[in-house]
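thread: overnight batch results

M.L. [08:02]
morning all. the overnight job finished for the chain we discussed friday. pasting input first so we're all looking at the same thing
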Amino acid sequence: MIAFVGSVFSPYYHWSGRKNPLNHVAFNVALYGPRGHAWAMTERGTRHLRREGRALEIGGSSICFDGSELVLAFDEVFLPWPGQRWWPERMQGEIRLTPSILADQAYRLDPSGRHVWQPVVPQGRVTVSSEMLPNGGWSGQGYHDMNYGNRPLEKDFEGWDWARGATEDGRAILVYDAVLADKSRNRFGLLYAEDEVREIELPARQRLVRGFWGVGGGVACDEAADANLCGVYEDSPFYRRSLVKTEIAGERLVMMHETLDCRRLANPVVRLMLPFRMPRRA
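M.L. [08:03]
and the structure it wrote out:
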């Protein structure tokens, strides 16, 4: 789930000249399971946005911190893909994320600090409740972060790979591997334990098999090991979200992984395709 204020992927925000981010907000919900996937991202205007110190509400969906848990409620409408008509048109439910590690340090993704990333809950316990899901929901590992910036991503990046996974003893490893517009790289890894965070030296990047749209990407992997793509959840002309198996600093990891290609995002043809998956309701 991603809450956007000034939606970075929005063609409407781009076509408007990016003058008013509060008029381009969205709550993206993605659910993946053995019976199929469901994905919703409706962009909304200013009148659908409500913000307080610890809470954000966009349309019928919200996220708030109650002092001990991050609580997300979602109520979104999606268009089912052919063959997935068993999904209802409305996605409703609740997610509760209880942190086991909290972090307050932010990191620059570019030398000028125009784009910043902050892991907030590198590791936690998540409970998902929804009538849409088998047995009414599930529980497992959880994670929460946030990004913010003051320029379009495609102005400063060619793209990036990001990955996050948990070690067997409950620590979390996070990886960012960004290629900037000038071809330089910003590549770093973080290891979070209960009471500390430290940077780790990343091994070389191994390429992953390309998807249907040609988006490939890669992930850090120890020299004596192999990186394997073991599940693809989103595969679009500019973005892929996957599950990968790799090894970093001797730790065998199953990592949630994303590859973003900003050059493709900026392609006018790709922008014209996006409204089919990102409708707008002002």
